[in-house]
Amino acid sequence: MGLFADHQPMFVEVETTTYCNRRCDYCPNSVFDRGLRRNEVRMPEDLFYKIVSDLGRNHFCNQFSPHNYGEPLADERMPHLLEMARHEMPKARIALYTNGDYLTPELFERLLPSVDAFVITQHGEKMPPGVKAIFDEHGGSHPKIRYKTAQSIKLNASNRGGLIPIQVNRRKACGVVMNELHINAHGQLILCCEDYLARKTFGNMRDMTIEEAWSSEERMRVHRANVRGEFQLDQCATCGYGRMT
Ligand code: SF4
Ligand code: SF4
């Protein structure tokens, strides 16, 4: 099991679809056309299964989320995919990050057995009607739902490795690479959650196990440079957050 047995990623994020129905101005989906329906890429189900079963075999017990820059609930396979994830990773905390636009009381009930936490961010002016219906049915709140507006994102907005033209405080150093694993809909192991365009990849999950991905020498080299603040990748050298609260 190697490194994975001693030190698991805190977060594993796997993108099942690149499509998002929104174009928020603090998101690279507003600048690039990757998130459009006509460009949609979906992760094949067998690859999703390979990743979650690999994680389960390695006793993954931290947070798993099925997203990157696509809206997970725009993927109608999501209830089935998360049942699979729940079955293969019984010890993981499965957190579903969503804009809530596709959520309905029926879909919520279907997802409940698989999902430990629903993190719903309202990106528009109003609470999505399906989310309102869920709250109405449950007396105003539900223990598995964390609901927030996009205000906090706007205040702390990241420039996504220099992709979004907003004023940021540059990072002095970064320890993200050896804390998290991010896999896009193509199956590429990407640098981090900021790597919208997959500018730095470490191979494809079709060709390697989760243990090989996690202990990749190249990833460790990037990590060691980043924690010293000796950024060698352009996106790291330009990466930063907006005003911190
Ligand atoms: S809803 Fe989320 S993923 Fe979609 S454009 Fe807005 S911030 Fe980006
Ligand atoms: S500094 Fe590099 S590795 Fe760290 S979050 Fe930014 S782009 Fe990702």
From TrEMBL:
Residues 174-239 form the 4Fe4S-binding SPASM domain. The keyword NAD does not apply. It comes from Actinomadura miaoliensis. InterPro entries: 4Fe4S-binding_SPASM_dom, Aldolase_TIM, Radical_SAM_PqqE_MftC-like, rSAM, rSAM_sf. Residues 14-119 form the Radical SAM core domain. Pfam families: Radical_SAM, SPASM. This is Radical SAM protein. CDD domains: Radical_SAM (cd01335), SPASM (cd21109). Keywords: Iron, Iron-sulfur, Metal-binding, S-adenosyl-L-methionine. Transmembrane segments: none annotated.
